[in-house]
Amino acid sequence: MNALTEKPAPTDAAGQSAVPMAQPTPPTSGRARKLALQGGVALVVLLGAGGIGTWWFTEARYIQSTDNAYVQGDIAVLGPRVEGDVQTIPVADNQIVHAGDPLITLDPTDFQARLQQARGSAAEAAAAIVTAQRQVEQAGAMIDQSDAMIAQAQAEFSRADADAGRTSALTSAGWASRQLNETKVADQRKSVASVAAARAQKENAVEALAVAKAQVAQAEAHKQTQDAAVKLAEKALADTVIRAPFDGVVGNRAAQLGQHVNALLQLISVTPLRDQLYVVANFKETQLRAMQPGQKVLLTPDIDTSAAIEGRVDSLAPATGSLYSLLPAENATGNFTKVVQRVPVKVRIDPAVADKAPWLRAGLSVTAEVDTRGPDAVRRGLWGSIGHAVGLE
Predict the structure, then answer these.
(1) Percent of all residues in the chain with a pLDDT value above 70, rounded to a whole number
(2) Fold of 76-107+241-269
(3) CATH architecture of residue range(s) 109-238
C-alpha cells in the first residue's frame, strides 16, 4: 500500500515514447553568456568613461566653482541727522518704497520756529544793507555840499581879498579910514578860515562816505551769514523727514512712535530691489588664472538648487579678502603657515533674470560656477557634451 507506483510513459502507435528525452547542456553555453555579459559591462564602462572624459576635456575643466558666495546689495542704513521725537512712521515692515518716499517723520515744531527766527534775522540784515546804502548816498551828498561851500568860501575870499587890497590903497592915499581897512582885512582873514572850514568839512564827508561803504560791506556780509542760517534751518527742518534714498524694500525698523532719537542713530534700513542685487563669490587664488569680466556664471542657490540663474563676472577685487579684514594677517612675524587666499569676484545679474528669481534676497548663499571659456560659451552638461561630441546635437 505504501509502495510508489510508477505511471507508465505514454507511447505512440509504434510503441515509442512520446516524451522527448532531455538533452545534456553543452558546457560552453554558460561561459559564452558570462563573457557576453562581461563584454557588455565593459562596453558600458568604456562608453561612460569616454563620455565623462569628453565632457571633462570640452567643458568641465574650464568651470571654476565655489560655494563661498553670497547675494549682496547696497543696503542703506538710515538714521536722523537731527535730534527729535518720532512723530509718524508711514511705512510698514518689508514694504516696497520708492525714492523720496517718507519713512520716518520727527516732530518739526522746534525746527519750524528756528527757521522763522533765521528768516527774521535775514530780513533784519537786508534792512541794515538798505540803511547803510542810504548812509553812503547821504555821505555823497555831504561831499557835494562841501564842494559847494568850498566854492562859495573861495569866492568870498576873492571878494574879501580884493576889498582889503582896495581899502589898503585908499587908506594909504587918505581916501579911506583905517577902521574900514581893518574891517576889510578882517573879512579877508575870515574868508580864508571859511575856505579851510569848507575843505575840512569835505574831508569829513569823504571819511563818512568811506565809513558808510564799509558799513554796506559789513551789512552784506551779515546778510550772507543770515542767509546761510536760513538754509541751515531749512535743511534741519527737511531732515525731520527721513526719506528713501532709492527704490527698495523697508526692513530692520528700530524706530517707535514717540521715541526720542539722537542724530546718527540707526532707525531703519532700505534694501535694493532684486534687479539691483549682485553676488560676491570668493574664489581661491588658484582659480583666477583664466577668469575675466564678462564670463558667464551659473548661480545655484542653497535655498532651491533647482532654481539656478545665470550671471556674468563684473569685476575682480584689487586685493584679497584678508587684506580688507579688521586685523589682516602679518606673515612676516612668528611661525608662517601658508594659506590659500581668496579674492572677491563681483557677479552682476541681468535685471530681467533677477525679476524671474523670487528667491533672490540679500545675504543668501549660492554656489557660483564660472565658465572661463569665454563670454559666449555654452554649457551643455554631461549628456549634452556627449551628444554634441557624437553629433546628436
Answers:
(1) 76
(2) OB fold (Dihydrolipoamide Acetyltransferase, E2P) (2.40.50)
(3) Orthogonal Bundle (1.10)
Fold exhibited by the domain 58-73+277-390: Elongation Factor Tu (Ef-tu); domain 3 (2.40.30)
Distances, alpha carbon 392 to alpha carbons 178, 383, 388, in Å: 146, 10, 6
154-199 residue pLDDT tens: 676 666 666 556 666 656 655 555 665 567 666 666 667 776 777 7
The rounded distance, in Å, linking the Cα atoms of 101 and 112 is 21
Phi and psi at residue 301, to the nearest 5°: -80, 145
Residue 390, all three cell numbers: 557624437
Residue 29 cell numbers, joined: 553555453
C-alpha cell at 244: 528713501
213 vs 209: CA distance, rounded Å? 6
Q: What's the pLDDT score for residue 168?
A: 64
Give the DSSP H/E element, type plus range, for residue 365: strand 365-371
Nearest 10 degrees: Cα torsion 76, 82, 83, 85: -70
Give the pairing of strands 278-284 and 342-348.
Answer: antiparallel
Q: Which set of grid coordinates corresponds to residue 187?
A: 573879512
Q: Which residues contact 156 (CB under 8 A, 6 or more apart)?
A: 191, 194
pTM exceeding the 0.85 threshold for the entire prediction: no
Torsion on CA atoms 368, 373, 379, 384, rounded to nearest 10: -140
DSSP codes joined into one string, 285-318: GGG-TT--TT-EEEEEETT-TT--EEEEEEEE-S
- For residue 173, with 0-12 CB atoms within 10 Å meaning exposed, 13-18 middle and 19 or more buried, which class applies? exposed
3-state SS, residue 61? helix
Residue 42's SS3 state is helix
Task: Report the sign of the C-alpha dihedral through residues 368, 372, 375, 379, in that order.
Answer: negative
All three cell numbers of 47, joined, read: 562608453
Q: At what angle do helices 381-390 and 29-58 cross, to 10 degrees?
A: 100
Cβ proximity of 328 and 322 under 8 Å: yes
Angle at which helix 178-238 crosses helix 109-173, to 10 degrees, equals 170
The number of helix segments (H) and strand segments (E) in the chain equals: 5, 14
Q: What sign for the dihedral angle of Cα 319, 322, 323, 326?
A: positive
Domain range list for the chain: 58-73+277-390, 76-107+241-269, 109-238
Other C-beta atoms lying within 10 Å of the C-beta of residue 312: 15
